[in-house]
Amino acid sequence: MSKTSITLTLDIDGMHCDACIQHIETALRPLIGLQSIQVTLGQVVATVDDSKTTKREIISAITEDGQFSVTAFASE
């Protein structure tokens, strides 16, 4: 990981099934700087180059259609 890489853990409300997981993966995939992503029911763990992608862009990609909401997040 580069010096600008951070790992974000986001708790997601509104996820109920595998289709929800795929929906979020599809929404995040186009973001520049996304290095890795793990989506499970209720949570997203993403490693990003924060010089290319902001936390706000990640949250917006997840919540854009109103189906999901981010209830908490942490970064390391």
Break the fold down into its secondary structure elements and pairings:
Layout: E1 5-13, H1 18-28, E2 34-40, E3 43-49, H2 55-63, E4 69-75
Antiparallel strand pairs: 1-3, 1-4, 2-3
Distance between the termini: 12 Å
Strand order of the largest sheet: 2-3-1-4
Counting structural domains, the number is: 1
User: Percent range for helical residues?
Assistant: 25-40%
Q: What is the fold-level CATH name, i.e. the topology?
A: Alpha-Beta Plaits
Quote the average pLDDT: 92
Number of strands: 4
Shape summary: globular
**CATH class category name:** Alpha Beta
Order of helices and strands: EHEEHE
Alpha plus pi helix count:
2
Question: What fraction strand?
Answer: 35-45%
Q: List low-pLDDT spans.
A: none
Rg value: 11 Å
Largest sheet: 4 strands, antiparallel
What structural category characterises the helix and strand content?
alpha+beta
CATH architecture: 2-Layer Sandwich
In short:
By secondary structure, the protein is α+β, with helices and mostly antiparallel strands. Helix content is 26%, strand content 39%. It has a single domain, classed as Alpha-Beta Plaits.
Describe it.
This protein is of the alpha+beta class and 76 residues long. The protein has one domain (5-75): Alpha-Beta Plaits (2-Layer Sandwich). It contains 2 helices and 4 strands. It has helices at residues 18-28, 55-63, and strands at residues 5-13, 34-40, 43-49, 69-75. It has a 4-stranded antiparallel sheet with strand order 2-3-1-4, covered by helices on one side. The chain is globular and about 35 Å long.
Give structural attributes:
76 residues; alpha+beta; Alpha-Beta Plaits; 4-stranded antiparallel sheet; 2 helices
